[in-house]
Design a protein that fits this description.
Length: 364
């Protein structure tokens, strides 16, 4: 006589699930300093895994050397992008005298507008600016020290990311065997399915983001060149780079593009650039993003937006970058565990239902 399988009541299962989420969230908050570079390293390792496998199998390099060469190639690509941006910024510095003249003229026009609109004379405006400048100069040493500390911490953060990436690539088989062993051999097929899907989807998502960034930058540069905006290449690169930051990136790109255009042109050019950036973003959000990136990670917009806000609240800017990939990992896991499938459906939404319905129609 077989024993009946005990099933806990719904409220008990829900409570345990919510407690698990809260405990995980608490660990994420207190473990930021370690988990932040570790997750970035994990994502970069997934991106570099095909390169490392190629160097190991085709070029006969040891695993340690193939991992190191893969990371050096990634660093080379990043420095290439930074060099491209720096070369464009150097063109701006060549025109610094002209920029100063344009800014002074713009400030004079703004001063005249304030005087005519709010009836505040020029002497009062200059006095306020002078007091503000003295306050800034008085705190200059503190600002400089804070800036230096922030740059040092950022560089150390990048070094930790590269170290975690190297060790993840180096010990990838050990980590995989550990995961299979933890969840027992009888569940190895489920574990392998989750691991393979995480690798595939995250790699496609990252490559999709990079492709989207290149396309948006190329379109922006072309539009700015057609309009006749100065520093079209720099502005296009700014729009493309900040476009990979979900939701908030467009506002940052819009602000920087407007400021640079206003300092080098006139109000008409600034308005045209603002309209162009908004139009490019609208095309990207409605056509490029769903086609290139949206097809890789099936998350509904509400969950994505909430995840980005929570990521920023917990980990700041890095949390915004990591929120979508991390939620995608959870969705892959939820979809393959029977008791957590409703949560996977919540993250994905109607797409999963339509996909299942279409599969059923094909089988009938």
């Amino acid at each position: 006589m077989s024993a009946k399988k005990l099933i806990a009541p719904f409220y008990e299962r829900l409570a345990l699930t919510l407690i698990g989420f809260l405990a995980l969230g608490y660990l994420i908050v207190i473990g930021k300093e370690l988990l932040d570079p570790m997750i970035f390293g994990f994502i970069f390792a997934i991106l570099l895994l095909p390169v490392s496998d190629f160097l190991e199998q085709k070029c006969r390099l040891p695993r340690s050397m193939s991992s190191l060469v893969s990371i050096l190639l990634l660093v080379g690509v990043v420095f290439g992008i930074l060099y491209l941006v720096g070369s464009q910024i150097s063109k701006v510095t060549d025109d610094w005298p002209m920029l100063q003249t344009q800014v002074k003229q713009s400030l004079q026009n703004l001063q005249d507008w304030i005087q005519s609109t709010f009836h505040i004379n020029a002497e009062s405006q200059l006095s306020y600016v002078d007091r503000t400048a003295h306050k800034i100069m008085a705190s200059g040493t503190e600002v400089l020290g804070t800036t230096f500390g922030a740059i040092s911490s950022l560089m150390l953060f990048y070094v930790f990311i590269m170290i975690f990436t190297f060790f993840t690539l180096l010990y990838r088989r050990l980590l995989l065997r550990f995961i299979i062993w933890v969840f027992r051999d009888e569940n190895s097929h489920v574990v392998m399915d989750i691991v393979e899907n995480i690798q595939s989807i995250l790699r496609q998502y990252i490559l999709g983001l990079l492709l989207e960034m290149v396309i948006v930058a190329a379109v922006a540069i072309s539009v700015f060149l057609l309009i006749g905006i100065k520093y079209a290449a720099l502005l296009g690169i700014i729009v493309g780079l900040f476009n990979i930051i979900p939701y908030i990136g467009i506002f940052t790109a819009l602000l920087l593009s407007a400021v640079i255009t206003f300092a080098t042109g006139n109000v008409k050019d600034t308005v045209i650039v603002i309209i162009s950036v908004v139009g490019i973003h609208a095309i990207d959000a409605n056509f490029l993003l769903p086609t290139i990136v949206g097809s890789k990670v099936r998350l509904n917009a509400l969950i994505s937006f909430i995840g980005i806000i929570l990521g920023e609240m917990i980990w700041g800017l890095s949390g915004m970058f990591l929120s979508i990939p991390v939620i995608a990992i959870f969705k892959i896991i939820f979809d393959r565990i029977e008791s957590l499938k409703p949560w996977g459906y919540l993250l994905g939404g109607d797409y999963e239902y339509k996909k299942a319905a279409a599969a059923e129609m094909k089988t009938e």
